[in-house]
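ok so I'm stuck.
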Amino acid sequence: MQTHTPKPSGGATRVVALLALPAAFLGCAAPTEPPVPPAGGQQLVLSYDQFGAEVEPILVRHGCDATGDCHGGGIRGTFELSPPGAKDTQFDFDQVSLQVRSPERDASPILTEPLALPAGGTPHGVKPFSTTNDSDYVSIRAWIQQAEPR
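replied:
not stuck anymore, here's the structure
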């Protein structure tokens, strides 16, 4: 028994060749310089010692590291903390540092999310700070403001 294999259409080959033609003449175009990073290329150097002595105890006192629906129960949004039974200050420092914005420090999520909406906060399930005058809020803000740009 003889089988017949259809020949590929020359039209499909021509279409592929025509689509590849501009790339052969233009090459890969690259921008002349890389885009500016979102933070303007600045990174803040936050104090690990001050975090451990002042900021982490505030987060623990307010239950931010609690399990369940809180940040100690796994990542919530873009933020996770070590759970109460297994505190890891370095992990928590790294996670909180990611919540700090370099050019607009007061707009950092670690400041705006736990702050009451009428005081300028952003949506978050728990609002432990009713005003920007709350002593714990002031301590976290001071830690951020004292950071040196790199």
